[in-house]
Design brief:
heterotrimer; A mainly alpha (640); B mainly alpha (105); C mainly alpha (220); A: 640 residues; mainly alpha; 26 helices; 2 strands; B: 105 residues
Chain lengths: 640, 105, 220
């Protein structure tokens, strides 16, 4: 198995090459299977690798050197331990399912082969990220997924809004990447190596200041990729891409790379408790922020986008408490139910012929019951309904926090964080079932008399209720599989699997208390949402429009608390001003006017001046002759 | 009588010749000023030669031979200059250096 | 005795030189140039170069000045044609320049150790000197054809070239020759911005005094 490790990222990459070069020449029926073949086979290989890793082995395979220059050595090395094994399964498994789903979803799209080429490239890059045994190789995959994210968000590039969203994602990621790169430099300076298995044992002997700096810088990179405060602003815009992209990249895999990075460097972070606290705090606040924005969103995908931001916050919350295993647990369950939710939303969008506004949905339970059921399964898992996978993973996080806050004496900081996380869990349940209610329950609100705003099929006339169909089997099958995983995935003891051997965590507060609290929060949120949106739909509206704070809050929440506008005014505008200033000062004034114009002026001036020597008249020449003689004589005389 | 006296004289004649070249426009006078220059130089050479006739005896006539050569060159130059003058006069109907300004590219 | 003669003729030669450059009529300048050559010749005599003295008179005064006079005669310039328009400032500038050159030369002469160490120009020759009782001309001839024969040959080639050039340049041109047909003249030149004052050339197109007409022909 070790010798075949490199095939895992290679096969999807070959798919990218084939489809990229010749995809448009192949018959359409061939493109899908080719695209799915790579990830599928990689999934099988990943399973084999996982099995080996589960037995305690660490698989390692080095293909050669990427960079070797003096003391700088970056190998092309692959490494599978338990952590990588888990991630491998998630990436390849969910990835393959989404590939299969896309065959149906993107069927009518003219750029079908390009989509799968990019998707395969993404898989290859993500797998490199997971399998890399050193920071620089990991960064290669990191950048690769960033690139694919840009390509896929702006997939329908003819609409400039999509390309703007892709560019925004790339640029914001870049800012985070700067921190990442600086962290990598610092790692090399401190440890002299980039390899994970050489960094971990060297942590105890390194300077604490350096460790803290590295941890902080790498976390900056993680905030970029994993959409935490302050670099999360690209994720809602990324919904401009096709829904399978949102499912794969912005729910299950790419955005989790930040969590994966932290887990990989867990030994380093364990030695920087201050940074961990920062991580946890940012995670919680991000979770809160995401959920608060969500409750007023009307686009079916934007709700899920902010939900992803929020749930990623939970993962970082867990990581910030040193519970990396729990963080990865939530990562896994989140991959299941969030991908399920996105794909289900995609099915709804597909059924409604690309309508995404929830205000024009409703009553779809009657028309597409199968889609509705899998969607509701996902919603239950996200809400943390008892016994779903989300329930177990989220409660593990909250339980850990509660333990820190109350378990060993009262720590107000951790207690506050727990409280926020707990409240957010309730809000999470609320907003996801708000979404369920709006989409599937009640009456169908699409096809309204105002045809300009109504949902419409590709032919431009409003979609009548009877025209809504279930998606085809190729899209439903992955949904069923994911629904199953979302239901039972919680019973896999991921934290125990990932915990370093011999470490026993003694929680003062019993786990059962956590379950009770979590279940209560979830049920309360669900009940409240269903009650409000099904029985009394006007209640919230009266609050939102009646009271002053309600109005202000609703308006702020709807606009994502104006964070984008703040960034625009605070950062983007000054930067653009600087660029304009530089343009005018350097480009126009200095280069164009002074250097280029000045040069020509100087040449013409001196030409004109020197031209006057050439008078053609003998006396003039004779005079200059005599001057020359004088100068020569003087020079000779004075020099001797 | 010292060498420096003769040299001062030669220098003075030379500078008179320079003045003549620079300040006269009539080409004939110009050519005559050139002859002045050459003669001043000849005088200087002969003075040096006489002064070193005692000190350096192995070729005491060297300076005088040089003067002969200079003389020959001066003669040739005068002839050519006058021919050019004639040709120029045919073209421009004038021997005034101020009016002839075609000497440029 | 020698010194006084030398200085006297030196002063005369300076005077003659000054007169040469300041006359308006080139004929006067020519006469005074001849006088100048004679004084230089006297200087040569005193400086123990009798051969050169004679050659100077023969070649310069005898040949070159005759050449000048012939050309003056051929040109047959009218008084208004030899009018010059030299500005005062130009004369002043020329004077300054030549004074500057003179200053530097005098300074060089004064400072030069070679000159300071040199022997007097009237010192008698010692007994065993090669020129002591030998003909000066023979010595020059020997030196010329032994030590400096290369220079001699080259200068003879130079003279040959000068002869050829002079003949060609001064040759009479036929009216149909390409040199003559191009109507170049003052004011008619093709150079841009050549606005020079026109000499009275229009009516003198057929002057051609040297076009084979008898010497001394006056124009009508």
């Amino acid at each position: 198995m070790e010798s075949a490790l490199f095939l895992v990222p290679l096969l999807p990459f070959l798919g990218f090459v084939v489809l990229g070069a010749a995809g448009h020449r192949l018959p359409r029926s061939l493109v899908g299977p080719i695209a799915c073949a790579g990830p599928a086979v990689s999934a099988l290989l990943a399973f084999a690798a996982f099995r080996d890793a589960a037995n305690g082995d660490v698989l390692s395979r080095v293909l050669g050197d990427w960079i070797r220059s003096g003391g700088l050595h970056v190998p092309l090395g692959f490494r599978v331990d338990r952590l990588a094994g888990v991630m491998l399964l998630v990436v390849t498994g969910v990835g393959t399912l989404i590939h299969i789903y896309s065959i149906g979803y993107m069927r009518e799209d003219p750029a079908y082969p390009r989509f799968f080429a990019y998707l395969n490239l993404f898989m290859a890059a993500m797998l490199v990220l997971v399998l890399a045994d050193n920071l620089v190789f990991l960064f290669l995959g990191w950048e690769g997924v960033g690139l694919c994210s840009y390509l896929l968000i702006g997939f329908w590039y003819k609409d400039l809004a999509n390309t703007a969203a892709g560019t925004k994602a790339f640029i914001v990621n870049r800012i985070g990447d700067l921190g990442f790169i600086l962290g990598i430099f610092l790692v090399f300076v401190t440890f002299g190596t980039f390899r994970f298995d050489q960094i971990a044992p060297a942590v105890p002997t390194a300077a604490p200041g350096a460790i803290t700096a590295i941890a902080l810088l790498l976390f900056v990179g993680a905030t970029g990729k994993s959409a935490q405060i302050p670099l999360y602003v690209w994720l809602p815009d990324a919904m401009a891409g096709p829904t399978p992209v949102s499912a794969l990249i912005h729910a299950a895999t790419m955005v989790t790379s930040g969590v994966y990075l932290l887990a990989r460097m867990s030994a380093l972070y364990a030695a920087a408790p201050a940074v961990l606290t920062v991580v946890a705090a940012i995670g919680v606040f991000t979770a809160v922020l995401g959920s608060l924005i969500e409750i007023t969103q009307t686009d079916i995908k934007k709700v899920l986008a902010y939900s992803t931001v929020s749930q990623l916050g939970y993962m970082f919350f867990a990581a910030g408490m040193g519970a990396f295993g729990i963080a990865v647990f939530h990562l896994v369950t989140h991959a299941f139910f969030k991908a399920l939710l996105f794909l289900g939303a995609g099915a709804v969008i597909h059924a409604l012929h690309h309508e995404q506004d929830m205000r024009r949905m409703g009553g779809l339970w009657r028309r597409i019951p199968r889609t509705a059921s899998v969607f509701i399964v996902g919603a239950l898992a996200l809400a943390g309904f008892p016994l779903t996978s989300g329930f177990f993973s989220k409660d593990a996080i909250l339980h850990e926090a509660l333990d820190r806050g109350l378990g060993h004496g009262f720590h107000p900081g951790w207690f506050l964080l727990w409280l926020l996380g707990f409240a957010t869990a309730a809000i999470t349940a609320f907003y996801v079932f708000r979404q369920v209610a709006l989409v599937f329950c009640g009456e169908y609100r699409g096809g309204a008399p105002d045809a300009a705003h109504g949902s419409h099929d590709g032919h431009g006339h409003p979609l009548a209720e009877h025209e809504i169909h279930e998606p085809p089997a190729v899209m439903m099958a992955p949904l069923y599989i994911l629904a199953l995983l979302a239901l039972v995935g919680g019973f896999i003891d991921v934290p125990g699997f990932l915990a370093p051997p011999g470490e026993a965590h003694h929680a003062a507060i019993g786990e059962a208390i956590g379950w009770v609290l979590g279940g209560a929060a979830a049920l309360a949120g669900i009940a409240f949402a269903l009650h409000v949106y099904l029985k009394r739909p006007d209640t919230l509206r009266r609050i939102a429009e009646g009271t002053a704070w309600g109005r202000r809050f609703a308006e702020a929440s709807r606009n994502a608390f104006h964070v984008d506008a703040i960034y625009e005014r605070l950062l983007v505008k000054p930067f653009l001003l600087l660029c304009m200033g530089l343009y005018y000062v350097i480009d126009r004034a200095l280069i164009d006017w002074f250097l280029v114009g000045g040069t020509s002026l100087a040449v013409s001036f001196w030409g004109g001046a020197l031209r006057r020597f050439q008078t053609g008249r003998i006396p003039t020449y004779a005079a200059w002759f005599a001057c020359g003689v004088l100068v020569v004589l003087a020079t000779i005389f004075l020099a001797s | 009588m010292s060498l420096s006296g003769a040299l001062y004289l030669a220098a003075a004649i030379f500078c008179v010749g320079v003045y003549g070249v620079l300040s006269r426009q009539n080409l004939l006078i110009l050519l005559m000023s050139l002859e002045l220059l050459l003669n001043a130089v000849n005088l200087a050479i002969v003075a040096f030669g006489r002064s070193y006739m005692v000190a350096v005896p192995d070729d005491p006539s060297g300076p005088q031979v040089l003067v002969v050569i200079v003389l020959a060159v001066a003669a040739a130059e005068a002839a050519i200059g006058l021919s050019i003058l004639l040709a120029v006069y045919r073209k421009w109907r004038s021997t005034n250096a101020g009016e002839i300004d075609m000497l440029r590219g | 005795m020698d010194a006084i003669t030398f200085y006297l003729s030196g002063i005369l030669s300076l005077v003659a030189a000054v007169v040469v450059v300041t006359r308006r009529n080139p004929v006067y300048s020519t006469i005074w140039l001849v006088a100048f050559f004679v004084t230089i010749s006297i200087d040569f005599l005193i400086l123990r170069a009798p051969f050169l003295a004679v050659i100077q008179v023969l070649v310069y005064a005898g040949a070159i000045m005759v050449l000048f006079l012939f050309v003056i005669m051929l040109l047959n310039l009218k008084p208004e044609e030899i009018l010059e328009t030299v500005t005062r400032s130009r004369k002043a500038g020329a004077a300054v320049l030549s004074a500057a050159i003179f200053t530097i030369l005098c300074a060089a002469i004064h400072e030069s150790p070679t000159v300071q160490r040199a022997a007097s120009l009237t010192a008698p020759l010692p007994q065993g000197h090669p020129l002591a009782n030998r003909d000066d001309t023979v010595a020059i001839g020997e030196s010329l054809f032994r030590n400096h024969v290369l220079a001699f040959e080259i200068s003879s080639v130079l003279i040959l070239v000068a002869i050829i050039g002079a003949i060609y340049l001064a040759k009479k041109r036929r009216p149909s020759s390409p040199v003559e047909t191009a109507p170049l003249g003052p004011g008619g030149s093709a150079s841009p911005g050549g606005a020079i004052e026109t000499a009275p050339a229009g009516g003198r197109a057929e002057k051609g005094a040297f076009a084979g007409e008898p010497v001394g022909a006056r124009q009508s």
